[in-house]
Design goal:
One of its GO terms (molecular function) is ATP binding. By secondary structure, the protein is of the alpha+beta class. It is built from 12 helices and 15 strands. β4 and β5 form a beta hairpin. α6 packs antiparallel against α7, α7 packs antiparallel against α10 and α8 crosses α10. The longest helix has 42 residues. It is elongated and about 150 Å long. The C terminus is likely disordered.
């Protein structure tokens, strides 16, 4: 490449100045970008304002639903109680607060249920036709349709704080769920409101059947099938196992009977009536009393009769004594068992499975509480027995009497 060439000139050349002004096209672009930024800012502000409005509306609706009218006041359903000798809270301070006109937020009822709902007493009385017998379900519940939803309401008698505390501690599919409460004009509890079980209490399906329920009758009425009875027994056992071993502290029901077992539309069982429930630590023998009561319930499911009933003359029939006579009949026990079973079942059940269940019931009702099985053992065995026959074959004799006519309980099985 050659050397640069230098040309002599008389004066320096005059070049045009550089121009940094934006073109018309650049102005248009900047204007458009500025408009986009302003529009996005306005839109974002509107979204934030809309979300804030929705949150305020939802907040107001929730507090409107959660409040209860007492005279001319609205009181939030939150309350705290002092503790009694068992560590359970008393509701006496609630009545004092309402009567005294204290309107501050209270903090206890919301502990008992997920979404506390306070129902007006007058509405419950109207929905139950003033507690008419036609609305009654079970021993102490009434059917009530409130705000378009059906509930089971229970009149609150005495101090129900222990039952409320119990409902705070439990959450299980086989225990009835507390939906809300109702407060009377005196400021104390008027009703406890529970989820509704469409089929009512178990006792009405077992031993309150009319004669037409028997197979010999030409007229048939609904009765519990064998499969349904097995499912109910397992549901109740699971509920008791949960109370005994999976609550803190461990709890006992204390009033296990057919009238306190409620059935859903698909015949799933739910334990109800916790007014006698208490911590197991209060009475170390209490869990075994629940086991005894479960054994009686199992006998009722098998026989279709009450655990104790009056017979001809002054005789009192006791199922737990009758089943011992059946199981101790040697070679005749199968024939005696068929005669003892609920005739409404016909030939629907397997005799070997029925013998196993009868043996389980006998073990649960042992006079010596120390010899009764734990609910974990019962749940395990029932879980196997409700399986298809091919699965249950190896286990069906678990609770049958041995050659020495004693109940053979195979080890201690933990249903974990």
């Amino acid at each position: 490449m050659g050397q640069p060439m230098l040309i002599p000139v008389k004066q320096q050349p005059r070049l045009p100045p550089l121009s940094y002004a934006a073109s018309a096209r650049d102005d248009k672009f900047r204007s458009r970008r500025r408009g986009i930024i302003i529009g996005a800012t306005i839109a974002g502000s509107l979204v934030v304002l809309a979300a804030l409005g929705v949150a305020i509306l939802a907040h107001r609706r929730y507090h409107k639903k959660a409040s209860v009218r007492l005279g001319s006041q609205f009181v939030s359903p939150k309350l705290s109680w002092p503790q009694n000798q068992y560590g359970l809270e008393s509701s006496n301070s609630f009545a004092h607060m309402i009567k005294g006109g204290d309107n501050k937020l209270l903090t206890g009822v919301s502990q008992f249920i997920d979404k506390p709902i306070i129902f007006v007493e007058e509405e419950i009385m109207e929905a139950t036709m003033n507690l008419d017998e036609r609305c009654k379900i079970g021993s102490s519940y009434y059917r009530a349709k409130l705000d378009g939803e059906v509930f089971a309401v229970k009149p609150a008698k005495g101090d129900v704080s222990a039952e409320l505390r119990m409902m705070q501690m439990v959450n299980h599919a086989n225990l009835i769920k507390l939906a809300g409460i109702s407060i009377g004009a005196d400021g104390d509890y008027a009703f406890l409101v529970y989820e509704f079980a469409e089929k009512g209490s178990l006792d009405k399906w077992l031993y309150q059947k009319p004669p037409s329920a028997l197979p010999s009758s030409s007229c048939t009425v609904p009765t519990l099938s064998w499969v349904q009875r097995l499912g109910i027994a397992l549901d109740v056992a699971n509920g008791l196992l949960y109370m005994h071993e999976h609550t803190q502290p461990s709890m006992v029901h204390g009033d296990m009977r057919a009238r306190n077992i409620l059935l859903t539309a698909d015949f799933r069982a739910k334990i109800s009536s916790f007014s006698l429930a208490k911590p197991a630590a209060v009475d170390a023998a209490a869990p075994s009393s629940d086991v005894f009561a479960f054994g009686l319930l199992l006998l009722e499911l098998l026989s279709g009769r009450a655990a104790m009933e009056a017979r001809i003359g002054s005789e009192i029939g006791m199922l737990w004594r009758e089943i011992r006579a059946v199981l101790e009949a040697g070679d005749k026990r199968e024939a005696k068992l068929r005669k003892w079973m609920d005739p409404a079942l016909g030939s629907e059940y397997q005799v070997d499975v029925a013998l196993s269940l009868a043996g389980m019931a006998r073990a649960c009702t042992e006079e010596d509480a120390a010899r009764r099985p734990k609910m974990a053992e019962v749940v395990f065995s029932l879980s196997v027995l409700v399986q298809p026959l091919s699965v249950a074959d190896a286990f069906e004799k678990l609770w049958q009497p041995s050659s020495e006519d004693n109940i053979r309980i195979a080890g201690s099985v933990a249903a974990r």
